[in-house]
Amino acid sequence: MKEIRAGLVIGLFAALLGAVASGAQDAGDPAVIILDVEEDGEVEGPEEPVGPVRWDEPLTGSAEEIRGKTIEQVFTENSPLFPPLEGLPEEIWKAQTCTTCHEWTRERICEQATNYLNPEFSENLTKPHPLGGTFKANLKLWAEDGCL
Questions:
Q1: What is the pTM for the complete model shown?
Q2: Beta strand 43-44 with 36-37: parallel, antiparallel or unpaired?
Q3: Which of 11, 16, 90, 145 has a Cα-to-Cα distance from 111 of 20 to 30 A?
Q4: What are the alphabetically sorted keywords of the record (predicted)?
Q5: DSSP strand E in 24-148: where?
Q6: Dihedral through CA 6, CA 9, CA 10, CA 16, nearest 10?
Q7: pLDDT tens, 101-148?
């Protein structure tokens, strides 16, 4: 009988904990982020940016194209999904990384990210980023914490 009660208590606790975690994740609580790593290495998680964002830690909440990568990896490994400048010929941007044309450093990326904190630039956050729709919002979260 004791085993049955212990099993019920443990089962109840697990169910409550699962419900709390699910509710916190649905509410966007950054303390509870559930990422699924598929067998092929694909990382699944929330589509919205989730902080804190750190330079050398994988992005946990973001567009599929950048999820699971660090900020540096996004700049050095990802190719734009669309031309960074309207009318730019495909041979210049397609299958290229940002570092092909730009000399991005951590300091320069931080400087750019800090622009997203300025209310005058808030409209820019609604426009998709060529490297992934939520990347600007990820950079803003990074800047909010001092580009750590």
A1: 0.65
A2: antiparallel
A3: 90
A4: Signal
A5: 36-37, 43-44
A6: 180
A7: 888 899 999 999 999 999 998 888 888 888 887 888 999 999 999 999
